[in-house]
Amino acid sequence: MQPRRRFRPVARSVAAAAAAAAALAVLAGAPGAPGLGFVSGGRPELAPTRGGSPTGGEGVALRATGMQPTYVPNPTHKETKRNRKVKVMARMPCQWFSTAEIMRRIVTVLIHNNEEKFRDAPMRTKDLMKEIGLTGYQMKIKRYVNEALYLLLGQKVIFKAKTSPIRWELHEEYRKDGLPPISKNKRKPWALSWLLQFERTKKPKYGPVHGEYRNRPWVPFAKRGEQWECQNCGFIEQGKLPTCTKCRIGQTPHITQEMIETMEI
Ligand SMILES: [Zn+2]
């Protein structure tokens, strides 16, 4: 703390500071001493510095106010030390993947495990997060990997094979025509992941991340109770949804091509 001053610091503006300095100079020159006054004499940088710095920087803040940056040790704002330990910081470097990068890595790992010899299959979400190299906050919670997973699910690239815990594998629609190549180099597993491109890498503003926009008519109300058999997997559907709920590939016969063509979106 600074020592207490005799005079209150009233000189805030430039003009006021100049006036104060002039008054002090007059006071100092009044005795008419042979030596210079205490203002202009021995230590001139200390006297007229009420409002600003001695180098003339008027208006410069003399002390900080408000929130301080947390990377500076600041006694007025104590940060929790839990996340600032050296070992924790070294173990969890700040590495942030975009959603598209997470999607490419997920599909690379799932292609690697397509024959179910690489890891336990179908793969759990946590295993995928470890395998694609998430760190820090992206590893701590599942929000970021889930966004990528459900975007892939909506585009029929991956398939939710099991729940509780959720396990993922490649979608049959994605691997029926052959899989894209992946890097065989263990030290550069993501070298060819740039080959994987997806139609959508950003979640929609409204609705679920894996949702589909309605670009075809619904099943007519009169036919919703009728059963139909999926051409793909043979599952007997109750007729409420346009796609088979078992494999998500087979289409209902209740929606004809004419209805699709004449539909107004
Ligand atoms: Zn089916």
Explain this structure.
With 265 residues, the protein is mostly helical. The chain contains eight helices and five strands; from the N terminus they run αααβαααββαββα. A three-stranded antiparallel beta sheet has the order 1-3-2. A two-stranded antiparallel ribbon has the order 4-5. A hairpin with a 4-residue loop joins β2 and β3. α3 packs across α6. The longest helix has 16 residues. The radius of gyration is 35 Å and the shape is extended. About 16% of the residues have low confidence. It binds zinc ion. Zinc ion binds next to loops. Keywords: Signal. It comes from Prorocentrum cordatum. This is RanBP2-type domain-containing protein.
Structural class: mainly alpha
**Which descriptor suits the 3D outline?**
extended
Hetero ligands: zinc ion
Largest sheet strand order = 1-3-2
CA-to-CA gap between the ends?
72 Å
Q: Helix content range of the residues, please?
A: 25-40%
Give start-end ranges of low-pLDDT stretches.
9-44, 49-54
Report the C-alpha radius of gyration, rounded: 35 Å
Number of helices: 8
Determine the strand fraction and express it as a percent band: 5-15%
- How many extended strands? 5
Overall pLDDT level: 78
Q: What's the order of the H and E elements?
A: HHHEHHHEEHEEH
Characterize the main sheet: 3 strands, antiparallel
